[in-house]
Design brief:
Layout: E1 2-8, E2 11-18, E3 21-28, H1 49-57, H2 98-106, H3 117-121, H4 124-127, E4 135-138, E5 145-149, H5 155-165, E6 169-170, E7 180-182, E8 187-190, E9 195-199, E10 208-210
Antiparallel strand pairs: 1-2, 2-3, 4-5, 6-10, 7-8, 8-9, 9-10
């Protein structure tokens, strides 16, 4: 497996080429990163991401401040459909495509949709606005509400931060801890085994960098 570093307009993305299939993985606002031949970081990383990158390559766990609810690795055990009991929903919101969503949500632990997918390929910014109020983001598999945003900030502020990092970025008060868990290495998941993204803390606190394809579901009626 070959690791290659690409810098994208203030966003550092590690692209992993495995069997010729590239995935983008978010590392936000890293000033300088070098990877030595042994795969170790050769410079100090910002925003606590040094430990996070170490976890990806192989290392110890990271401690996260409250109100993070730490999950057990068993939540991501093999199930009927990858790490989940079923595929993602057929008609995802915001035009998210099924194949990308199913791969990211159910057959993936480390990688992400490409930077900017949420605001360039999805219709999120066409469909949502300040008038939308607090938008409910549902698990693409189960339909459970995982995030509600924006809270205690404007829609413009939510969009600005998310554009800066390349992925929808949520804060602690926007997370539904009934259904969201963070593993010790920062991987953020749902209790149903959906891979959502990663917790990448910054100077403001925990920041959940989430794939839009993972939270584009619709509520499922229990009736």
């Amino acid at each position: 497996m070959k690791l290659k570093l690409e810098i994208l307009t203030g966003l550092a993305t590690i692209v992993v080429h495995a069997s010729g299939f590239p995935f983008g993985f978010p590392y936000a606002l890293i000033k300088k990163v070098t990877l030595n031949s042994n795969g170790r970081t050769g410079s100090k990383l910002n925003m606590g991401i040094g430990d996070f990158l170490s976890n990806l390559i192989g290392g110890g766990g990271t401690k996260f401040s409250p109100p993070v609810v730490i999950g057990e690795e068993s939540l991501m055990s093999k199930k009927a459909h990858g790490t989940s009991a079923n595929p993602v929903q057929a008609n995802l919101r915001w035009g998210c495509d099924f194949e990308t969503a199913d791969r990211i949500c159910n057959f993936n632990r480390h990688y992400a949709e490409f930077a900017g997918y949420w605001d360039k390929k999805s219709t999120f910014l066409k469909d949502e606005s300040d008038a939308s109020g607090e938008i409910k983001f549902h698990d693409s598999n189960s339909g459970k509400i995982l995030f509600e945003a924006p809270k205690d900030r404007s829609f413009e502020s939510f969009v600005k931060e998310s554009k800066m990092h390349g992925w929808p970025s949520f804060r602690d008060n926007e997370v539904n801890w009934d259904y969201v868990r963070v593993l010790p290495n920062g991987e953020t998941i749902s209790i149903d085994g959906t891979h959502l993204g990663h917790n990448l803390p910054d100077s403001k606190g925990n920041r959940y960098c989430i794939n839009i394809v993972s939270v584009a579901g619709s509520p499922i009626s229990t009736e």
